[in-house]
Specification:
By secondary structure, the protein is mainly beta. It has one helix at about 45-50; strands at about 10, 20-25, 30, 40-45, 55-60, 75-80, 90, 95, 100-105, 110-115, 125, 130-135, 140-150, 160-165. It is about 5% helix and about 35% strand.
């Protein structure tokens, strides 16, 4: 699991009174882009996700530089981090003829599964571990599934391919032997002659 898998956090602090600057610190092991910025960004580490939460502290400067008169102000905020779910597994689909439906199946360990026709972005075309689809074109069709937690965290998408075969058209049968006699056929005529 790489650190880039986790969303960068946007922090914010407001100065008031005699404070003119401040510094961010955290209980996490991630990194700040600029810990002295009021609007610093924090990139969580893998350990932060495992821990589950990060406490951020913003400490202002001491306006008079002496604790005897004024002291720095401190404000804290806690971010609860939820890791992305694992991608769906055990994807399956049967190949079909054009005009038929096939059933896509997958398992996401209790999370909701959403189905897409694109690897990224787009709008879900179906929801659930079982999804019926009726393609309108022949060829190799690719669908994508992602897992979604109750908190709205989404997994990476995984692909499933299946084939849609074109249906054969009804053939047209013709003949060029109509109204012809067979050379092998014989006709027997029985005649009865009567007279006086």
């Amino acid at each position: 699991v790489s650190q880039s898998r986790y969303t960068q956090l946007q922090l914010g602090a407001t100065l008031s009174g005699g404070a003119t600057s401040g510094t961010w610190t955290s209980t996490g092991t991630g990194t700040f882009d600029n810990s002295s910025s009021l609007t610093a960004k924090y990139t969580p580490s893998v350990a932060d996700a495992t821990k589950g939460s990060i406490e951020f502290t913003f400490t202002t400067n001491d306006p008079d530089g002496s604790a005897a008169q004024c002291s720095a102000a401190v404000s804290k905020t806690t971010f609860t981090y939820k890791a992305r779910p694992s991608a769906p597994i055990n994807l399956s689909a049967n190949s079909i003829c054009l005009g038929e439906s096939t059933t896509l199946t997958a398992n996401a360990g209790g999370n909701t599964i959403k189905w897409y026709t694109t690897a990224t972005g787009g709008t879900a075309v179906g929801t659930g571990s079982i999804f019926n689809v009726t393609p309108t074109i022949a060829g190799t069709i690719t669908c994508y599934a992602e897992a979604v937690t109750a908190d709205g965290c989404t997994s990476e998408r995984v692909a499933i391919d299946f084939t849609v075969y074109p249906r054969p058209t009804t053939p047209t049968a013709t003949t060029t032997l109509a109204n012809q006699c067979s050379s092998g056929a014989t006709t027997t005529v029985n005649a009865i002659v009567t007279g006086k």
